[in-house]
Amino acid sequence: MARIPLLVYERGIFREAHLEDLREAVYMLVSTIPVGKVATYKCIANILGVSPRLVALVLKENKQPIVVPCHRVVMSSLRVGGYSMGGSRVKERLLSIEGVTVRAGGVSESSVLDECRVGSTKGRRKS
Fold first, then answer.
1. 18-116 architecture in CATH?
2. Cα(93)–Cα(80) distance, rounded to whole angstroms?
3. How far is CA 42 from the centre of its chain?
4. Which one of the listed residues 55, 70, 95, 100 is annotated catalytic?
């Protein structure tokens, strides 16, 4: 399958997106996740048309975890995954403080944004 470039519309023209554009888009989406809810790396990736691993790499470099609440992004398996600001235990604690039910390293299905639930088409790009 051919790679389709991510495009950005700027000053009346389309251009291929750069890493900084992707970073901005990921941060913007993550910033909209409400307190008490989580999204998955895969859901964010589907919206942007990129790999979930790329989303994870962008969030790993987040220097403003209060402004961009990357702890609200979890794995598709609903395991919390890593957290560069203190490890998975810190991530679990932050989510718990915000009202997310965390059990055995994972979050409850009820904490996942509706757009990111398995079977939902809201968080998927149309082909």
1. Orthogonal Bundle (1.10)
2. 11
3. 7
4. 70
